[in-house]
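## Example record

The block below lists the input lines for one assembly entry, exactly as stored, with component labels intact.
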Amino acid sequence: MAETALTNAGQPTAQIAGFRGIAADWSSDQRAFKNVSWGKAMMWIFLLSDTFIFSCFLLSYMTARMSTTVPWPNPSEVFALNLGGKHIPLILIAIMTFILISSSGTMAMAVNFGYRRDRVKTAALMLATAAFGATFVSMQAFEWTKLIMEGVRPWGNPWGAAQFGSCFFLITGFHGTHVTIGVIFLIAIARKVLRGDFDVERRGFFTSRKGYYEIVEITGLYWHFVDLVWVFIFAFFYLW
Amino acid sequence: MTNAAVHVEGSQHSLQAHVLAPAASHAKGQQHPIKLYLVVWGWLFVLSTCSYMVDYLGIHGNLRWFLIVLFMVLKAGLIVAVFMHMAWERLALAYAILLPPVLVLVFVSIMVFESDYTHLLRLLFFAAST
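Predicted C-alpha cells for the full assembly:
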C-alpha cells in the first residue's frame, strides 16, 4: 500500500524526438513525465506556480512605475554605499548578486556529489550553500534597515513616487522569505545526507517514504529557482 | 479507423526500439562533469559583472534596456538549462514547465496598455493638484 506511488523513476522509457515525443508522452498511459520521479515533477510544478506569483509582483511593480506621474526614485542612487570614502552605486546589490550566484554554484556541485554518493562533500557543499544564503539574507536585512532609517515606507519615501517603498518591500521581502525557507530546507537535507539516511534508504519521519539522493537535486531545483528570481529582480527592480 | 490506429501503434513501436539505447544512459540521476558547473558558474559571474557595469558606466536609453534584458535572459537560461538540468530533461517536461511562463508576456502587454491609460488619465485630471 505504501509503495503504490513510484518514488523513483522506474526503468527508462523510449524517447521520441521532437513534438511527436511530447505528444507520445502526454497521451501515454499513467504518467506524462516518464523518467522524472513524482518528487521532482511536483517541485517543478510548484516552481511554475511560484513563477506566476513573482511575475504578478513584478507586473504590479511595472504597472505602478509606468502609471505614476511622480518621478521614480533612482535605484542606482538609493542603493549606493560609501565604501572606503568612495561613493559606489548599487554596490551592495552587486555583492548580493555574486553571493547568490556562488551559492547556486556550490548547490549544483552538491547535487553532483550526491549522485556519486559522496556524503561528506555533498553535505559540506550544501552547508556552504546555506551559509551563502544566510549571508544574503543578512545583507538584505542590512539593506532594509538602511532604507527604513532613511525614511522609506510602503506609503512614501523622500525621493519620489510613493509606490517605490511598497514595491521594494513586497518583492524583496517575498524573495528574502524564499531564501530563508531555502536555507532551512538545505540544512535539514544536509543533516540527513551527513547521517547517511539516503545510503540506507531510511524512511522519513513524516512521510515514511524511503529517502534517496534525488532529494538533493530537488532541494537544488528550489535553490536555483531562488537565484533565478533574483536575476529578474536585479534586472527589473535595481537596474531598470 | 482501426487501420490508422494499428498503423500509429506500429510506427511507435519501431520508434521506441530505435531510441531505447541513448535513453538508458541517463537512467541514474543527472551525472555531469564538475567542470561544466564551474564553467557555467564563471559565465554567470561574467554576465553579472556585465549587467552591473551597465549601471556603473551609466549607459542610458534603449541600449541600457537591451543590455539589461540580454544579460538577464542569458543568466536565466544558463541557470535553468545547466544548473536545473532542464537541458537533459525530456521535452514533455521542458515544454510543460517553460511554455506557461512565456504566456506571462501577454499579461505584460495588457498591463502596458492599462498603465499607459492610467497615466494619461492622471495627467489629464490630476496633474494640476499634485
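The radius of gyration of chain A is 21 Å. Confidence is low (pLDDT under 50) at residues 1-9 of chain A.
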